[in-house]
Amino acid sequence: xxxxxxxxxxxxxxxxxxxxxxxxxxxxxxxxxxxxxxxxxxxxxxxxxxxxxxxxxxxxxxxxxxxxxxxxxxxxxxxxxxxxxxxxxxxxxxxxxxxxxxxxxxxxxxxxxxxxxxxxxxxxxxxxxxxxxxxxxxxxxxxxxxxxxxxxxxxxxxxxxxxxxxxxxxxxxxxxxxxxxxxxxxxxxxxxxxxxxxxxxxxxxxxxxxxxxxxxxxxxxxxxxxxxxxxxxxxxxxxx
Amino acid sequence: xxxxxxxxxxxxxxxxxxxxxxxxxxxxxxxxxxxxxxxxxxxxxxxxxxxxxxxxxxxxxxxxxxxxxxxxxxxxxxxxxxxxxxxxxxxxxxxxxxxxxxxxxxxxxxxxxxxxxxxxxxxxxxxxxxxxxxxxxxxxxxxxxxxxxxxxxxxxxxxxxxxxxxxxxxxxxxxxxxxxxxxxxxxxxxxxxxxxxxxxxxxxxxxxxxxxxxxxxxxxxxxxxxxxxxxxxxxxxxxxxxxxxxxxxxxxxxxxxxxxxxxxxxxxxxxxxxxxxxxxxxxxxxxxxxxxxxxxxxxxxxxxxxxxxxxxxxxxxxxxxxxxxxxxxxxxxxxxxxxxxxxxxxxxxxxxxxxxxxxxxxxxxxxxxxxxxxxxxxxxxxxxxxxxxx
Lengths: 240, 390
What we know:
The complex is a heterodimer of chains A (about 240) and B (about 400).
Chain A: E1 2-11, E2 14-24, E3 28-34, H1 40-47, E4 55-60, E5 72-75, H2 87-96, H3 102-115, H4 131-143, E6 149-153, H5 161-176, E7 180-185, H6 188-194, E8 197-202, E9 205-210, H7 212-219, H8 224-239
Helix pairs in contact in A: 2-3, 2-4, 7-8
Chain B: H1 2-17, H2 20-53, E1 56-61, H3 64-75, E2 78-83, H4 88-94, E3 98-102, E4 118-121, H5 127-154, H6 159-162, H7 180-211, H8 215-219, H9 225-256, H10 258-264, H11 272-299, H12 303-313, H13 323-326, H14 338-349, H15 355-381, H16 384-387
Parallel strand pairs in B: 1-2, 1-3
Antiparallel strand pairs in B: 3-4
């Protein structure tokens, strides 16, 4: 479970996040939906502890600062892999730095390999991997230490249709297993198909948080795209 | 903490072992550097020997005084070549090392009717020929002394009175030692190995990680940032020490194996234990260099920028190439790099060295290393480690 209250972050004169509040529950997929520059990545980096918020509070599993790092898995927009190491070694290194016992890591890697269908690539060096294969390793890296909460920054960016469908299936499985998943996106279709709860962000603000059906009802629209446009127009109107 | 440091260290080592391009470059550099320098020493020695040993071609304009000295010069290996007049062209045409002219006396010399004056000319553009001319000048002066002795003996002087002293050149080291050039070179080589063996690795572990977009993920782990920095630092320092050993061993092999001695003109001069002592003395510098290069890597915006700055930082090793000139500077042995270099030089020469100065140099080196590590850690704990524009 992850909560953010009145988060704010500025880089010099640029206010990247002005006021963002949200709640992401266990057993749910929560989407951070916003256009480019809305503050999604900065919000994720603040939750992950990489950036210190200028204002506001963040809690992970009810703990504000000293939550165990292994309870939060982050797939940021920096999606690099160690190319001279195999998929398994990439996953093992990351999980071992979460201070897990070797046997547990190996069991987690075995389970992740099955879940992500990566038997064919698990012992190959990651140099030359396709975007889909890389994404499997990146997600596998998180599953190798099996965190309760997962933060994913635009996880399907660059994936083809089939890879995206498989990936969504994996996220649903994790949700059904009781994990708390937060992902950022600007793809409306993805939100419609995947999110149990949507946080609409625009210009550094969280405008609202509701389920897809609630957003449709509130805006009187039947597509996420139209609902989103209406919501951010309303946000601009309120600020004006 | 220690477990995390070990994990980071092992990961970096595995990554380097599989980086065949970097390993090949490092191996080639570390092997060829000592061989090249050995060749330079050998070549310098050969050239000096050539100048001393080779027959010198001496042009001369005919004169009775010149004819008097020619037999003596021929006995010394000089080949006389008659010419009509001194000119630049005649040097090239006859391939002359020097030209001998009898200097006619003018009115001012009338008071000295006995003294014969020669001029030995060089073309002034070739150092080898200038050295040959100096040698011919020495032969002429020696002839003058012999002539004087003969005249005095003829006049009744006792021969033993005419040469009251003798002098002979001796060396403490055995005759097969290359001497101070080899020692100075050894110190300089270890210094260069320190800086240049780690250059790529240090950049790769910091700016390289950021550019490959793996650093951010590393910072999300439970590993304290100090463990990440120390793990990377210890790995780079290990590479630096290995680089020193590798270079030193190559230099030692070149001095020991007869085929290299013949090919490169090198003679032995460093023992294996001297090499190991050198690595021990210089090891704190390996930690200093690693902390400096990692700090540069963490502060730079890109790999290219980090490589450029680290290459410039390699200039710090240059003083180790000039210890021969710096030896006498007061207090310099107390400072890092100079202190270690001078101490090792003294060890190689078998001389006493200033232990207090050495300890001071090592202590300052450790202190600077800790400061640089602290700066790197501060950088890793700052948001800027990720936000820097690439």
